[in-house]
């Protein structure tokens, strides 16, 4: 299959995912049921984001050491952790709904800057991540490297700010 078709398909699927997520999180009614297990999902989400960030960093170290197999394992692990985060996040928002930030003063604009930049970069990050994986798995390494130079910092920022959002919400809500 031609690379341009696959990359176009990835962008199309990513747009569909974002439309679905926007509807699911902001417009669909939650179930409003309460469970102690659901209350633990934000912590799980934080851990999954943290593990994704750690795997990304180790993956970069390994590719700089020319250890492609270890690099692949770390990057696939980061992808799995991010995917598990998304599933857990959707379950939490289906049952619990939004979490409101109650912080005041200077911390409020800092939190919302982090949150908004996190959300906006996910719009760029998802198609970049999927494209970078496609290029690696289809052995188009020279193009993969060009994509990865953009994908890595964006994905790392998304993962780290996911942890920060949890910390802010826990500390100020």
What would you say this structure looks like, in words?
- With about 170 residues, the protein is an all-alpha fold.
- The protein contains 6 helices and no strands.
- The mean pLDDT is about 90.
- The longest helix is centred in the C-terminal third of the chain and has 32 residues, at about 140-170.
- It has helices spanning about 5-25, 35-40, 40-65, 70-95, 105-135, 140-170.
- α1 (about 5-25) runs antiparallel to α5.
- Helices cover about 85% and strands about 0% of the residues.
- The protein is globular.
How would you summarize what this structure contains?
The chain has 173 residues and is an all-alpha fold.
Protein topology:
Blueprint: H1 3-27, H2 36-39, H3 41-64, H4 68-95, H5 107-137, H6 141-172
Helix pairs in contact: 1-5, 3-4, 3-6, 5-6
Structural category: mainly alpha
**What is the ordering of alpha helices and beta strands?**
HHHHHH
Strand elements, count: 0
Question: What overall form do the CA principal axes indicate?
Answer: globular
Major beta-sheet overview: none
Low-confidence region ranges = none
Total helical elements: 6
- From the N-terminal CA to the C-terminal CA, the straight-line distance is 49 Å
Radius of gyration: 17 Å
Percent of residues in helical segments? over 70%
Strand content range? under 5%
**Overall mean confidence score, pLDDT:** 91
């Amino acid at each position: 299959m031609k690379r341009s078709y696959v990359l176009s398909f990835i962008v199309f699927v990513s747009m569909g995912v974002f439309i679905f997520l926007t509807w699911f999180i902001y417009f669909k009614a939650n179930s409003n049921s309460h469970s102690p297990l659901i209350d633990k999902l934000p912590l799980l989400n934080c851990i999954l984001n943290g593990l994704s960030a750690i795997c990304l960093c180790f993956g970069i170290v390994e590719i700089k050491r020319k250890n492609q197999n270890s690099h692949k394992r770390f990057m696939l692990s980061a992808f799995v952790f991010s995917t598990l985060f998304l599933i857990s996040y959707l379950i939490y928002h289906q049952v619990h709904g939004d979490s409101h930030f109650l912080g005041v003063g200077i911390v409020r604009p800092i939190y919302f800057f982090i949150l908004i930049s996190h959300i906006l970069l996910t719009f760029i990050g998802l198609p970049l991540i999927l494209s970078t994986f496609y290029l690696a798995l289809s052995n188009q390494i020279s193009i993969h490297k060009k994509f990865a130079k953009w994908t890595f910092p964006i994905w790392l920022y998304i993962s780290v700010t996911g942890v920060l959002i949890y910390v802010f919400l826990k500390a100020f809500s």
